[in-house]
Amino acid sequence: MATKQTIEEGLEFIPKFDDTGLIPAIAQDAKTGQVLMSAFINREALDLTIQTGYAVYFSRDRQKLWKKGEESGHLQKVEQILVDCDQDCLILKVTVDAGQCHVGYQSCFYRALKKDTGKELEFVAEKVYDPKEIYKK
Amino acid sequence: MATKQTIEEGLEFIPKFDDTGLIPAIAQDAKTGQVLMSAFINREALDLTIQTGYAVYFSRDRQKLWKKGEESGHLQKVEQILVDCDQDCLILKVTVDAGQCHVGYQSCFYRALKKDTGKELEFVAEKVYDPKEIYKK
Description:
2 copies of one chain form a homodimer.
Chain A: H1 4-9, E1 23-29, E2 35-41, H2 43-52, E3 56-59, E4 64-67, E5 77-83, E6 90-95, E7 111-113, E8 121-123, H3 131-134
Parallel strand pairs in A: 1-6
Antiparallel strand pairs in A: 1-2, 3-4, 5-6, 7-8
């Protein structure tokens, strides 16, 4: 088993998958720094991401591999993969076109908690596409 | 139970804590956009974060509340809390001083996977402080 020193300060990539075989991955726009989404990756998805250069996640809902954009066309070209100190979280720095969230926004983080409330949200972005046009039945 | 529509397009903040009572939270530098760390928050930590204006997480290792910087002094002043489409992940936009990672770097994401390797990391940042000076025994 790798030591804390090896994990934190070493040059070996030993991502820590959790009990269900997943590691969280944050997709961040390589150009603007905007955080686009947070999802999970398993070993197979990580290997495919590295091999193909495009982000592949594991959908917990659908329990299957999910190449981002396979349905919508909004692929994520992976420029860089970062790992954190304890190697239990990844950042994918990605190049993207407009509209990364299935709801129609560029980022999934399109709402913020209103100041001085603990319960109320406000929109902080505008839709960049109409999901009804993209996700046709 | 809230509908998909309410969760994704509503103005009610209904963060989805997982089976262990936690929701992942990404700390992002409000000024530079740099992702600093990823951690977990439980209901109590979230309430304290909102009430105090400083980031409080829940440490899975130590199984207790963890006010970021309580030991190191590197507090995170929370400027904005964002939530994603399905309300199962948060971003804390924070104002910070130098050195957010306990290993000595500004961000926990100080290593990247080397191009054309699936196993080898390279450092992409330099230390901004000496942790031995901060975390004295």
